[in-house]
Amino acid sequence: MNSTFEYEQPPVVKNMLSVALIGPDEKRRRALAAALERHPVTLTSEYGVYPNYQQLAKLGESGCDVVIVDLDHDPEVALDLVESICSRNLAATVMVYSATRDPEVLVRCMRAGAREFLSEPISPDALAEAVIRATARRLEIEKQKKLSGRVLVFCGAKGGAGVTTLASNFSIALKQEAGAEVALIDLKTQLGDVAVVLGLTPHFTIADALHNSERLDQDFVSSLLVEHRSGVAVLASPDQCSAQTLVMDGSLRKLLHVLRSRFPFVVVDGGSIFTEGLRVACEMADSIYLVTQAEIPALRNAQRLIAHFQQPGAPEGRIEMVLNRFDPRKVEIQESRMAKVLPLPLKWKVPNDYFSVCRSLNTGTPLVQENSSIARVLHQMARQACGKPVEQGKKKRWGLFE
Length: 402
Hints:
By secondary structure, this protein is α/β, with parallel strands linked by helices. 43% of the residues lie in helices and 18% in strands. An eight-stranded mixed β-sheet has the order 9-10-8-11-7-12-13-14, sandwiched between helices. The chain has a six-stranded mixed β-sheet with strand order 1-3-2-4-5-6, with helices on both faces.
């Protein structure tokens, strides 16, 4: 017997919440569903068992405004479920309902991410107030979405691909081209180099953000940022190497949501190792700049990463291939061969200028401050990212595109 019940969507009513109800006890679940009918909500689905991984993913994709979870059937499983839903969908308001009023249980629910605790028997006033708060939160989130910035992730197909150099200089070019605020995040929590590349000595790092997820808001995050002389706000990686894993799914998602609500553009240096943090960042990304080189290992890894990013259900058209250190006179693999290997075109070709890059890294002077071929490509990438027309007349002379 199917334990999931989905309902045909009624006509859209302004401010009406969509609700998913999870409760193994059918009698309790039906009583709550009946109580919800007296409020401006739409019951979109019911779960007669706690959802498995696939059902949870489908629930997240549905964009449900409110998820109500029966805590009493199996409190430990239910609390894990609440935490998972909250980490996957920060916009959803998760409510729990229970016959118990144990303060310790209430605290655990709040720590898991639940925003409302409904005690049985649920009074009409308590339910009405919870619905009003959830509606207000939904409207606030919609307002933030209209103002939210774009997340642009740089990641490498292979170590040493030059991701940090490109991400750092792209951020400065984007600041100049867009005339808007830009945040640059170093997601390489073990051995990140953004601060070194930009000549910065930060007092706080991304570790301070991820270790204080409960404090993550615009004011707190702003206090962790250090401003580069170009105006780019930087959240650097820790200065010390540690075996401790810093990136946690829920904390990083919350951090990126806060940053994109504050900055029109959030650039992420994701590095060249496909970590859990990079996975989360790529899931939230509006654009992914996949950096590769004209060599077999890098091209093979790029092919595999593209296949991962283009899995069913993933947004299309986000990936932009960047061929770094490109020198048409000294390439052993011709572009025609690379085009056959990669399922996406090489959109950007960054010229090979070893001495300029070394000078930039050793002096902390950004490449985009120079009149170089690399700077011109990065400015073209930035122009497109902020919606400006790419200067087509210079394309052939600089060899920007295929």
